[in-house]
Design a protein that fits this description.
single chain, 4 helices, mainly alpha
């Protein structure tokens, strides 16, 4: 099970691709998901985002 954990995280990231693209746009959403689904890189990116307090790829601005 331990050996499969990085790949399970990749599957979860892939499952959230559509919502990420909706929130961030096509390019930023794709890069966000690609980094998240790469084993170990996604964990490091998420940890860095927690320390920074914001996303590397911010959500797109939607004017009302």
């Amino acid at each position: 099970m331990i050996r499969a954990m990085p790949y399970l995280g990749g599957l979860v990231a892939l499952a959230t691709l559509a919502s990420s693209i909706r929130r961030k746009g096509v390019v930023r959403g794709t890069f966000h998901t690609a980094l998240d689904m790469t084993p170990y890189v996604g964990g490091a990116k998420n940890a860095a985002e927690i320390v920074r307090g914001r996303d590397f790829f911010p959500d797109k601005n939607i004017a009302p």
